[in-house]
Amino acid sequence: MKTADFDYDLPAELIAQQPLTDRAASRMMVVNRVTGEICHEQFRNIGRYLHAGDLLVLNDTKVIPARIWSKSPAVELLLVEDLGGNRWSALVKPGKRAKPGTALVFSGELTALIEGETDFGGRVLQFSNDVRPYLAEHGVAPLPPYIKRTRPNPVDLPRYQTVFAAHPGAVAAPTAGLHFTPEMLAKFPHAFITLHVGIGTFRPVKVESVEEYKMHAERFSIPAETAAAIRQVQRVVAVGTTVVRALESTSEGSTELFIRPPFTFRVVDVLLTNFHLPKSTLLMLVSAFASRELILNAYAEAVRERYRFFSYGDCMLIL
Length: 319
Prior knowledge:
Blueprint: E1 27-31, E2 38-42, E3 54-59, E4 61-63, E5 67-69, E6 76-84, E7 87-93, E8 103-105, E9 111-117, E10 123-127, H1 132-138, H2 156-159, E11 167-170, H3 182-185, E12 190-195, E13 218-221, H4 224-232, E14 235-239, H5 241-248, E15 254-255, E16 270-274, H6 281-289, H7 292-304, E17 315-318
Parallel strand pairs: 1-17, 3-12, 3-14, 4-11, 14-16
Antiparallel strand pairs: 1-2, 5-6, 6-7, 7-10, 8-9, 9-10, 12-13, 13-15, 16-17
């Protein structure tokens, strides 16, 4: 299967640049993967499509304000993963100012030494002390590159975060969960997993053949009470692709699971997800859950109906 098989045309003006004032006001495309029927709803009406015995499973990871800037040399950093001992992996820009051996100076007394490069083109940094207090004071929301800002708006950090976020560690939001308000979530039986969304969200698939691509590992945990609840319900409704990857993984603690057609789902019965980038691993996962043809038809209809795409955009419920 080719990466090009998951391409589609998207007008740039349909990429949502701002969140809606009302989270639950998002539009929701409902796709029946058995009949192929597609209909259009508002997210606040999701209860019409849920049954008694359904369990919503959500990712309660919390996005950290992981984007910071050094003063000398002037480098933009997106911290990706805490490696322990005040060492972090990060994406850096421009890379020519951040070669191994370079010392970065931040405001205050914080410094960082660039120790080496990562396998995803980033850098490994050794900070002089714990960087997390610095992030809390100076860091900003790590918005995806398709949201065009010089610097994030003040609203971005709370809105690029689910209302149920609990465990800091993600560098990207589990965006399907952004549509829920506390009032809506309280209406439905639900449980949580934690998967810290990592650099894989930002990595384009550059290989021609899908089988050649290797996913970046992401850490996750499934509480015992969530696992027990899943065994007792009729349908598991995964809120987002990160939940799917965690629930369908056979490993524990970390997953490199790459879900693409064909794939046999063992746990997830219904999927709520946002609209994803062309030729992305997330679009491949959704295509495995329904079918590539049905999903690409649905995306074409979403373009015709002027849905809002990607992180701050609308959503799709696949039954």
